[in-house]
User: Fold this.
Amino acid sequence: MTVQIDRHYLVEFQVSAERISQVRRIVAAHLRHWSLELHVRPVCRGVEELLTNVHRHVGDRDRCVVELRWSGRHLTVSVADGSTEMPRLLDGGGGGLGRVMALSDSWGTCRTDEGKVVWFTRYAKEPRTAGTMPTAPLPGGREFRRPPVAVVDTPADVTTTADAAPALV
Assistant:
């Protein structure tokens, strides 16, 4: 049985260079909380690119909204701002949107009544957790087990350290 996941997070703030790094850390924390550790670096890089574009092209005067939505299959990240100027993908693809395109499965822009939204998605399937019950060996297969480790009592007058290098014989 698959449980439908619908996680959502939204933060609104005034754009500044300091806020970009703070929002990046917040996004990383939410992704880790949602067990999406494999997506932290690319998603945070994409968010950073979009926020840097807002800071560069719109300026510090504007507020923006970063939204994360994870359905259990797809993670959608959007950044909304109050500017009506639509971003363009440069021919060389080396700009911020080119990087976002490289980090995502899909991306896009759309106008809103208040300005615009730039978004990207990544395929982010619900992580599987390891079973807690041991599984039986396959029929006809051999089961390999480690031999038990012998426990040796250390005399009281002998001290050991974890950092000591093993003696070469």
